[in-house]
Amino acid sequence: MKAEELFALLRRRGYLWPSSELYGGAAGLYDYGPLGTSLKRRVEDAWCAYFLGLSDDYHLIDAAEMLPEAVVRASGHLENFTDPEMRCENCHAAFRADTVLEKFRPEGVDGLDPTQIAELVKAHGVKCPSCGQPKLSVPRPFNMMFGVEFGVTGKEKVYLRPETAQSSFLAFPRMWDVGRKALPLGIAIIGKVYRNEIAPRQVLFRMRAFTQAELQIFFDPAGFPISFPTVADERLPVLRADRRAHGEESPQWTSATELVVSGGLPEFYVYHLVHMFRFFRDVLGVPGERIRLFEKSEKERAFYNRIQFDVEVHLESLGGFKEIGAVHYRGDYDLTRHGAGAGRDLSVSKDGRTLLPHVLEVTLGVDRSLWALADAGLHTDGDRTLWRIPAYLAPASVGIFPLLWKEHGPTARRVARELQSAGIRAVYDEGGSIGKRYARMDEAGTPYCVTVDGDTLTAGPMAGTVTVRERDSKSQERVAIEGLADRLRPRLSLPRPAVH
Ligand SMILES: [Zn+2]
To answer: What's the gap in Å between 138 CA and the centre of ligand 1?
Structure first.
């Protein structure tokens, strides 16, 4: 499905729609309906279960969405959080330089300065996408943060956070003080971030408000204790920067051990890259061959990142590999900058040594993950829509139907209540034909449907049994109500990482 079709389907089915739709919408802002909200929560829960499962010293916090100016000055965002913006001197429309050049330079313009970009525009004879005149200006840096007046005087300025990471860096000294003073210490945040995109587009891919799930791991640069044997044999689809420089675009399946021994990457970094890959493959259910771990070259990555691999997923709707997450080795940049900005040494004492922790960042775009799930899993077949999502991510786990509402309703309600008290997300539905009810559950991705019918209530071999239908295969089996929760639960549990 193309992006427009996929969005039309999601909108029609009530997963998400443009924010302030009643007033014509606001570019780059979207609202999630009940199913979309549920699915988003499930992805966030799965992310927490997986990444906080890596260590008992990794914690989730909740932080304010506004940052004082001093914070974004110290972090470098005030100066550097910019996109090259080009204006048309004829019609005054504004564009992102990479959008204007994407036909000629699909890899983007990271690492190019304004003069180089302007030369490319000239060399390819690029015209204004709005009016068609060759009148595009030399790009200027456009800061993507939203500044907000703070307080009654309007003299204080704060910024809507452009990433959740900063709040984790700011929380580090407090977390160190109140915690058990162990490294690595992980501080995770899931929440909204805000970017004033020049050209929001591709629905959930370039939004002005979106949700990030980020884990900042503070560690002793002298050693990051991990169990490398648990990942050593995993093969990863990597595209290294040096191979890209030779025009390669396909990933090369390389074992974690090889990446360390001949690939020159530190063990702790590869370990987390493996876990990121496993999260996408084993938790989000993205087939390994649709994943690419794309290394950013020194020129392309942010200057403070020592190593950066983007996790990309091949999306039919957007015609290629798209970045959904990343693993960044940020060194001591963040604690150095905030230490200087706040006038406080953020070093810690450990085993008689004083050290400034380094940071490894594991980051995921939650909205983009949802889009990837829809891209891969949402299918239409005539009137039928089927969403194949991993069972534990589905907004509801089981639909419970009475074949006839009057006769079988009370028993079906009881089965639903029993499953709910056993911690299973069961929903009762008596509206319309059985076919209609299956269809509703299929498009919500509900993995199982349970039907109570005449045989359930009649004495005989089928007494006390129900039909359980599986979403993807449509296969049905007859099972006893007794023990139904125990039967379903193992198929619904969230995967956790193997760390020992
Ligand atoms: Zn123009």
So the answer is: 14
